[in-house]
Please model this.
Amino acid sequence: MTLPDLTHRQIATAFANGFDHILDYDALSKICESARVKGADFSEVYIERRLSTWITLVEDKINVVRAGIKAGAGVRVIRGTHVGYAYCEDLRPESIEIAAKTAAYITHEGSPESFSNPVNVTPPRTDQSVTFYRLESDGKKKTDLLRRANSAARDEDNRVKEVSCTYYDEEKEIRIVNSDGLQCDDQRSLYGFHVFVLTGDGGKNNFGYATGGGRYPFTYFEKRTPEMIARDASRQALRKLRSCECPAGQFPVVINKGWGGVLIHEAVGHGLESDFNRRGSSVYTGKIGQKVASEYVTIIDDGTILNGRGSSNSDDEGTITKKNILIDNGILKNYLYDNYNARLMNAVPTGNGRRESFAQLPMPRMTNTYIARGKDNPEDLIRSVKWGLYAQTLGGGQVDIASGNFVFEVQEGYWIENGKITYPVLGANLIGNGPDILNKIDAIGNDLEIETGAGACSKEGQNIPVGVGQPTIKIGEMTIGGTGLRRL
Model:
């Protein structure tokens, strides 16, 4: 299969002219106001165009190719606590007007209380902190990346049995108008590249996984080449062939920098989203100003990080993104707010109102969430452990927002003995409670890294790109699930 090129002319026609030749601010403002005729407190029109490519290579062949342009609009109307939302899959004014009337009708059927705290409108910044890059239009260049990665992964060792590679890109342009007087445009681009490798030796199989990408230009792949990504995946899979079963019990755990921050994202970050706290369903509800973590711990959500997967100039409600300190030296300082929950909680939006597309409502979501840099040498963290686990790469996990309890798979881990990393371990799981673990972090490295190549967060059926990060951290003690025996 071959990928049809999207020419520069096609891309220019789809994006470069902006929205003004279709729907200018005045036209959208009129539609927005028409949605309030039945006494709504707030209305908003969100329009979006998206150009995307998705290509996969499996067993030496390009087997999936998807490329296309999608556009649509969503209208939200709020009356008290009641929200009406309707969308259309085109940008014709008459279609958006129908969506506006539908959303207004939905809210009018309810009988909620009115808002008592209108949100102040901050003018959108004119200087963009997040750079927008046009997508590469040459389809052959994209498929060549996949073929190069496939060859590099297989050339690493004859024990590499299967390789699959995925390339994707996305270019999105949005326009938002609301009844508070906000008018906002933003443009966003994203690249992603994933390699999965399966190895086998003597009846024993294992896998490796590596990623690349972020909000970069296509020239990113000249620095973080597909060969580098593929070799990382192959070498991880090969190392894991030597794995022993992981000991189980209570041990110190050292978690690697960068992607290791996914544990904080899941076990802590979701609990700081304002919708959970407004409903009283988070373990952090009502704890602003209280100590919730070790004094070493500062947790930040920052939607302005250069090249960050979760970065943008504004959120999907038009609020300017910024650096939000959530936990400062162990003290809970703030939650993550969208417009709706900020109104109901007498708070200020933090730039965290995000949505997957025009077909969904915005809700409070993380952008790039990380533990701030510490002062310790990462090697000293490992040297301080007599018996314990070094979690090189984390996999998937499950978290209960109300209690903070979690279980996380360790995709690649190593046992620490007498301050040294020894053998790779298999089947390790990290089991714990978010607030408890935060208070057991007793050392933080000076090697902060934000992961830009991986990170997709799912909430209520909406998937969005996010960044995670941290320095190397040490948790004094936590439960490790495993099936092996401790070596003495």
Q: What stands out?
A: The two ends are 56 Å apart (CA to CA). The chain has two domains: 8-240, 244-481. The domain at 8-240 is CATH 3.30.2290.10 (PmbA/TldD fold).
